[in-house]
Amino acid sequence: MTLYQPFLEQGIEILRAKLDLDAYPIPEGFEFKEAVTGKGDRAQLVTTTSYAFQSEKIRQFRAAHVQGGAALQVLNFVIFPRLNYDLPFFGADLVTLPGGHLIAIDMQPLFRDEPDYQARYSAPVMATFEKYQAHLPWGGDFPEEAQPFFSPAFLWTRPTETEAVETHVFNAFKDYLDLYLGFVEQAQPVTDPDRLKEVEAAHLRYLRYRAEKDPARGMFKRFYGEEWTEAYIHGFLFDLEQKLTSST
Ligand code: DBV
Fold first, then answer.
1. How far apart are CA 109 and CA 69, in angstroms?
2. Which domain covers residue 103, as residue numbers?
3. What is the number of domains present in the chain?
4. Could you tell me the pLDDT band of residue 143, with boundaries at 50, 70 and 90?
């Protein structure tokens, strides 16, 4: 059992319990990828497994699970709502590299600066955020340009103990996901045409940022090459733009 396997399994189970999940098509070649890195004694198999579902209110839930031994474990777990809801994105980036653990969990707002939006989608998460921040202190520097995409409840931490990942981070992940599914349950469709345009624009802004700045790009390129990596990022991990252009 690897470090993030329980997050993946529990995460999907929590979604299944609350939502009527359908499969979301994963393009050929992306469900599973493997490569060997290093040579001789340092040879290491690195696998990437992808999962994806959709539901009435969720355009795409997808997870990418990268496994390459104890010093390389990554789970990136993101929920993209449908474009006729103003729901935030659920994002978890759970990363273990030779340098240590790096954890980002958030419900990333479409409209960060609107007080009413914050009141609905960030304020209710603050108590949970504060509870976990006591055990999982702020992780320090992160890219300035990422700032507009985070909520005030952004849990960003670099635990020094693996046990903290297995306990506090695991509980935080489940609690954030439960809260998010409460938002999904309550969400009512947006019908105002101007607001719908703003929602789509906010999705595209976010997607373009995440695709362009994907911190995993370097890692994926090293393991699987540039062509596969770009196709995976734009055709699966952050696929909205391709979906919109292919449907018109
Ligand atoms: N990050 C992704 C995807 C990944 C992934 C799709 C499938 O968006 C992994 C894999 N993130 C990943 C890896 C690293 C990070 C780092 C491998 C380490 C990169 C390295 O050190 O070489 C949050 N993730 C980071 C960083 C941030 C985030 C701020 C540090 C980047 C830096 O310092 O430049 N990812 C970022 C974010 C969310 C997220 C805001 C939303 C919750 O998923």
1. 34
2. 5-192
3. 1
4. confident
